[in-house]
Write a structure and sequence with these properties.
By secondary structure, the chain is α/β, with parallel strands linked by helices. Helix content is 38%, strand content 16%. It contains 16 helices and 15 strands. Strand 2, helix 3 and strand 3 form a beta-alpha-beta unit. It is globular and about 65 Å long.
Length: 467
Amino acid sequence: MVLPKPEGKQNEILYLSEVDNIVILGTAGSGKTTIALLRAVKMARMYPKDKILLLTYNRTLINYMEFILSDIPENLVIENYHKFARGYLNSRGKMKYNCILNSKNELIKEAIDSVKKMYPNESTLNRHVDVFIDEIEWIQKMGISDKNAYIKVERTGRSDARILRKNRIYFYEVFQKYIELRNESGYLYDWDSLAAVVCEEAAQDETERFYRYILIDEGQDFSPMMLKSLSLLIPDEGSINFFGDAAQQIYGSRISWRSAGLTNVKIWKLEKNYRNKSGVGKLAKAISELPFFEIDDNDKVDSVVPIAEGPKPILMQVKNLEDEINFVANVVKGSDSSRTIAVLLKTREDVRIIEDEFTIKGINYTTLKKDMDRWNGNDSVYIGTYHSAKGLEFDIVILPFMSDQYMPTEDEIDKYGSKDDALSEEVKLVYVSVTRAKTGVIITYFDELTDLLPRDENLYDWRSEND
């Protein structure tokens, strides 16, 4: 597959000096992955004796990159952060068999129960377990290892309102108990703690750096500690190239370049959308302007709606869940096999529902998942979660189950404390999913439409089973 030829500002970025740390913030569809690949190849060929590292967040996107990049220079390595971190720690003698805890959820529940015995009358400890899970992940991603530092740290957005400063002490008690339980279980690390360990090791590592240049694609998903660890592992004459979209940040905290170890950063912004046609682009822009769509003004990139004409997204109201599942299957079954189509959903349980229906109807499909070992360019139908589709693109995207009662659920509203907070958490997932579509989007729902979608009637081709 041939990569698209860079245009306009993309060309300027491609030929920037390799010496500087650069940050490229672009809207969805602005060609960030394309330029990251082209720049990585250019650096690898310019410096054939040096190792170049191109990092991204998940394995699916790596397979996709390797598919579209037919001729990869031998000195260019493409992998995800956690594979890189494991490799580095192993080279330092800090890894052993089965030393990473895959899921911390059960141990966090156990930690909460333990801390409750210490503070039996503290209502904070009765909050939804997912709030504790999310907060502990945030603590780890920020590299906080001191109770007083955690209590004093400034938070922005709704996150600060969810956990009052006076209650942070109980969250940190749970965090400390969790670490104790994890260690007692024989695990040195969990996935969110790896970056901090890499930082600690890199700070005292005086050996020659393995990579001269590190490029990061989908960088908005990297935590500050991940970025800091990478900044510690390049030589003085090396640099980091960061490609990301703050509007797609769905994994963690906002990024401070200084806290991430990047100094003398030169920031470039790509506003032009080359992927989405006009109908898709207008909907994406409207979603990003919803009042609960939070983004740091310093990192915001105002997107330019694509000029390439395309159909309005179809908004289909059905009678019930059974009709919705059946409608999606029939649309896919009747679609043009020459075009790629993706059905994107919130959870793995939802994915299985659609998989079962497609199997019954004899529809061939590929499931997007983190352990995909290849990307087959001949496949035309994909099913996956919103997360699994990050960085990818398809001709058509179908988004089922976009009803108000499901997006968000009552349990999610309870978890985050209010409906606005729950909407704030999920809106970027919807934005990411919509912007995966090059040509068209089909959205289905029954009863009431979710507030995660704008109500402007001019954005959609409104349809109903009753029509």
